[in-house]
Design brief:
Distance between the termini: 47 Å
Number of helices: 8
Helix content: 25-40%
Number of strands: 12
Radius of gyration: 21 Å
Amino acid sequence: YVKSPRQMAEQFHDVPEAVASTVAIAERCNVELDFGANHAPMVRVVHPGEPATFTGGDRTAWFCDYCARFELLPYDAEGDKPSCAMSCEADGDGALSMEILKEISGGCATLFADVSHMDTGKGILYLPNCGGMCSWFAGRSGDSRENLKHVELRPSVRPGGGAITYFTAAPGPITLARLYRVTGRYRMAIIPGEVVDLDDADRAAFIEARGKHQLPTAFVRVDADLDRFVDEFGSNHISGVAGDWVRELVALCDMLDVDAVVMDKNF
């Protein structure tokens, strides 16, 4: 939110000239914004090169060290740019899951989301996230301009303020997946699904339940038994990539000595 003049004067009471200078600068500015255009910020990711070979130990620590080497810089959005897997909340296994999905799909965009709600009657997972929902999913188009037509900037409810992107993921097939550990051994949940549009009543109920905290969300219909999903799934975060990549992920898990847990209608 925007603080009032009184609040600003109280906060900077020891340097009153700062408030006066801010007003003077604002009065000298002359900016015209096209409110019919999308002004979502874009960044350029500076890739640190290939990671060091994993030789054992904790995969999360290994990947977190690699992840910290990326740089984010402003850039002109024109032209193709290589995608980069980035998770939230220092979730190294989440980022590693996204990187696996990106590589196995030939470089497709991935999403990162919270397992927020489940409609067990309709078999739908509600998957929102403020920072890790790639805008490609807004329109599923190879043209970023088409995708950004469906993206809004909305006020953030976080203490730091600012804005968040907001959209609903466009319908289409998706493979959800996630690395997690049981007694120290890696498993990968692999969940084929379909991103769907909610009916008006369900969507209105979801928006009302979240209140002001509206985030980009994918609504994914799955065939898995959701009660068993809750018992087995080892995280509050989940990742995904468009298309059907179940067989490829199972084969990769076999190569990496990771236990594949396919959560489909036979789960």
